[in-house]
């Protein structure tokens, strides 16, 4: 990769800051205008990472607005509908969460499912930028973060690994990991709907209609059960233990221990969660593929998928028994790392959402974990590829791993955020 000039770095840094401000809606950011017009859970936490590089106060506000939407039972929804937008489907009326007992009164309109819990990790990073000035704000967030992690362990950790009840919860919406579990039910009774995403983005880059019918069926199932955790556990046909959820919660729990120590709070409960998650992660190891995999908890079967989530164990803090050999093979097969799905698999699709493209946020977590584990060559390869993709193709939602084609939404918040907080040479100097 050609070394960027200082002038080019300054220009990219400036553009990333502009994108964060462009997508700022006053206290929260949207991922990008049009395609995603609301506040998304893990997108917002990544936005805080980006803001922290130049405006720590705004980073804290992002996290505070995000956590203010937490349900009474501890769940943090994956979308908060601060202002209704007819250009997005499914909107608040489809989710029907207003009467959900777990939500409680007075919360902002929201979806009924969650997303990977990275908020504690980026709260700790924001504190590192802000020091003593951020301690009171960190202290105010701590009880909400504890409640969120406790909810995950109480409602989703029956196997030790963390289960999802909808593919959207994983953040890897249409990954091949879910194909078998999704095929196990027919989306009978799905109410008529009109997709909005394909009006913003080439349908070639989005999930298929067959997938979308099942997504909406699962939303209707949740709505019909008042978004009750026990009903999902007992009756939903879709319940899959997910490496993204498991390893992001594992890392966030380690970071929550760090927060607790800063605040002089007890850590025993959190350390117990980490031990359970470490044991649960072993149930996701697939000997055939040599990496971590998703497991259908209804059948016990592993999905047989090698994805970018397969390499998040290092981010989670695991050091033994990691998929180094499989990572090396995938890196060798991709011009740009890390593809979201194995290029050697016949199901690979270089442009369709999570079935092949490269995502900067996943690269940031995988690379950071590798670096912390001492695998600096692999870590730097992933960072260099991310820099090249953004330098050559802008701050797109995701990229083709074969030729770098930008795909999905443009002027994307979390791509700008990981540039400022990790990928940029300026970030490396800091």
Walk me through the topology.
Blueprint (H helix, E strand, L loop, with lengths): L5 H17 L16 E2 H12 L3 H13 L10 E2 L11 H4 L23 H12 L4 H21 L7 E2 L14 H5 L13 H4 L8 H16 L4 H7 L4 E2 L1 H20 L5 H14 L3 E2 L4 E2 L2 E2 L16 H4 L7 H10 L26 H13 L3 H18 L4 E2 L6 E2 L5 H11 L1 H5 L1
Antiparallel strand pairs: 1-2, 3-4, 4-7, 5-6, 8-9
Helix pairs in contact: 1-17, 2-3, 2-5, 2-17, 3-5, 3-6, 5-6, 5-11, 6-11, 11-12, 15-16, 16-17
Q: Average pLDDT, to the nearest integer?
A: 95
Strand-and-helix sequence, N→C?
Answer: HEHHEHHHEHHHHEHHEEEHHHHEEHH
Count of separate DSSP helical elements: 18
CATH architecture: Alpha/alpha barrel
Sheet-strand content, in percent, reads under 5%
* Relative helix content: 40-55%
Question: How does this model look, in words?
Answer:
- With 430 residues, this protein is mostly helical.
- The chain has a single domain, classed as Glycosyltransferase.
- 48% of the residues lie in helices and 4% in strands.
- It contains 18 helices and 9 strands.
- The strands form 4 sheets. A 3-stranded antiparallel beta sheet has the order 3-4-7.
- Helix 2 packs parallel to helix 5.
- It is globular, with a radius of gyration of 20 Å.
- The mean pLDDT is 95.
């Amino acid at each position: 990769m050609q070394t960027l000039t200082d002038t080019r770095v300054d220009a990219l840094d400036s553009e990333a800051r502009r994108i964060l401000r462009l997508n700022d809606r006053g206290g929260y950011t949207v991922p990008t205008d049009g395609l995603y017009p609301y506040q998304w859970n893990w997108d917002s936490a990544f936005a805080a990472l980006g803001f922290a590089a130049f405006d720590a106060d705004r980073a804290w506000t992002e996290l505070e607005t995000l956590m203010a939407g937490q349900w009474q039972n501890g769940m943090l929804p994956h979308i908060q509908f601060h202002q209704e937008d007819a250009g997005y489907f499914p909107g608040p009326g489809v989710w029907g969460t207003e009467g959900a007992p777990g939500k409680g009164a007075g919360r902002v309109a929201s979806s009924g499912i969650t997303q990977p819990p990275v908020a504690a990790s980026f709260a700790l990073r924001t504190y590192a930028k802000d020091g003593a000035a951020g301690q009171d704000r960190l202290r105010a967030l701590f009880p909400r973060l504890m409640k969120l992690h406790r909810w995950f362990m109480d409602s989703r950790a029956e196997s030790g690994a963390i289960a999802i009840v909808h593919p959207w919860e994983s953040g890897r919406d249409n990954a091949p990991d879910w194909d078998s579990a999704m095929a196990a039910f027919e989306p009978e009774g799905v109410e008529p709907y009109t997709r909005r995403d394909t009006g913003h983005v080439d349908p070639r880059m989005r999930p298929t209609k067959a997938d979308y019918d099942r997504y909406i069926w699962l939303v209707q199932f949740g709505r019909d059960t008042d978004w009750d955790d026990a009903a999902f556990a007992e009756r939903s046909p879709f319940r899959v233990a997910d490496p993204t959820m498991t390893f992001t919660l594992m890392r966030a729990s380690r970071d929550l221990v760090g927060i607790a120590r800063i605040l002089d709070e007890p850590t025993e409960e959190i350390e117990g969660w980490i031990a359970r998650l470490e044991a649960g992660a072993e149930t996701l190891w697939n000997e055939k593929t040599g990496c971590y995999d998703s497991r259908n908890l209804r059948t016990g079967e592993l999905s047989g998928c090698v994805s970018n989530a397969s390499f998040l164990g290092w981010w989670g803090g695991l050091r033994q028994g990691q998929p180094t050999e499989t990572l090396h093979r995938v890196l060798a097969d991709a011009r740009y790392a890390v593809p979201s799905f194995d290029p050697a698999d016949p199901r690979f699709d270089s442009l369709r959402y999570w079935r092949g493209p490269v995502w900067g946020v996943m690269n940031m977590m995988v690379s950071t974990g590798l670096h912390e584990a001492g695998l600096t060559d692999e870590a730097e390869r992933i960072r260099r590829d991310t820099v090249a993709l953004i330098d050559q193709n802008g701050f797109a939602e995701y990229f083709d791993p074969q030729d770098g084609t930008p795909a999905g939404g443009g002027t994307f918040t979390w791509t700008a955020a990981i540039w400022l907080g990790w990928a940029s040479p300026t970030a490396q100097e800091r």
